[in-house]
Amino acid sequence: MVVLVTGSSGQLGQSLQYLAPNYQEIQFVFCTSADLNITNIAQCHAVFKQYQPDYCINAAAYTAVDKAESEPEKAHIINVIGAKNIAEVCKAYNTVLLHISTDFVFNGTKKSPYTEEDIPNPTGVYGKTKWEGEIAVQQTWEKHFIVRTSWVYSQFGHNFMKTMLRLASERDTISVVNDQIGTPTNAVDLADALVQIILTDNRQTTTDNFGIYNFSNEGQCSWYDFAKKIFEINKTQIELKAIPTSSFPTPAQRPAYSVLDKSKIKNTFGLSIKNWDACL
Ligand SMILES: NC(=O)c1ccc[n+]([C@@H]2O[C@H](COP(=O)([O-])OP(=O)(O)OC[C@H]3O[C@@H](n4cnc5c(N)ncnc54)[C@H](OP(=O)(O)O)[C@@H]3O)[C@@H](O)[C@H]2O)c1
């Protein structure tokens, strides 16, 4: 089975590369943005023609949440046109698409975990383009899994955990917001869940489970709680202050609450998901 991964130098892409040796039954093809620019449809066709993948994990995205507010066209081209291109080429080669989306499609006014049926209502450019990317995939190719995730971190790339550890080495005090609630997701756990979806789907011949799924680690916390746990585990000496979002204005407005309900992915694929703090 051939699984092609776009955006392979990102956090999720590198996490999939980290896991790949555990899955000898899968031949992974890892494509960086130089190997496969998802905004270039001709290149998409050429790469798919060469590898004829059974599955494609679209881990490529424009992920700079704040920068997207001043670069909406760039975010749109990658997150909407790029997603559409990948869905089109998947359709041409009968490749099942696993497309990754985000909790930022929601505005965060809900008080209980978001299910796959909740209607998106993004507050910023990034969330809007990711939602439009989902719609482009849905309208283009039915053989898709859209996996929404949240607060992704890992030993790879840029993320909140690494930023906290870097700041702690430069400062004596760090202030972190405590009124945005969500769930951190270890990118390696997300990568493993995607592989489980592929293995389950590949075994099935008559039924299909295509559609939207939520995946994050279990539990919930604020960014302040997340930072506190990062420092606790690393035995970092730092004064950590809890502040409200109003004291830390950012170009993009973030959802105040974005915990995802994982019942559907657990029930459909038999996944057991670790708590966010245990896997940190
Ligand atoms: N990070 C989070 O907290 C978070 C939360 C929720 C959902 N997600 C979603 O999870 C997925 C993976 O995120 P991540 O954290 O792994 O992102 P990431 O580390 O920012 O990686 C994104 C990758 O996409 C590549 N890319 C950008 N433009 C491209 C293009 N035109 N063609 C091909 N590749 C391109 C980048 O390559 P270059 O480095 O070469 O530009 C990079 O390797 C994304 O769909 C993201 O929206 C992330």
UniProtKB/TrEMBL annotation:
Pathway, per record: Carbohydrate biosynthesis; dTDP-L-rhamnose biosynthesis
RmlD-like substrate binding domain span: 1-278
Keyword Nucleotide-binding in annotation: no
CDD domains: dTDP_HR_like_SDR_e
UniProt keyword terms in alphabetical order: NADP, Oxidoreductase
Top-level taxonomic group: Bacteria
Entry keyword Oxidoreductase: yes
Entry EC number(s): 1.1.1.133
InterPro entries attached to this UniProt entry: dTDP_dehydrorham_reduct, NAD(P)-bd_dom_sf, RmlD-like-bd
Matches recorded under SUPFAM superfamilies: NAD(P)-binding Rossmann-fold domains
Function, in words: Catalyzes the reduction of dTDP-6-deoxy-L-lyxo-4-hexulose to yield dTDP-L-rhamnose.
PANTHER family, per database record: DTDP-4-DEHYDRORHAMNOSE REDUCTASE, METHIONINE ADENOSYLTRANSFERASE 2 SUBUNIT BETA
Family, per entry: Belongs to the dTDP-4-dehydrorhamnose reductase family.
Protein name according to UniProt: dTDP-4-dehydrorhamnose reductase
Name of the gene this protein is made from: rfbD
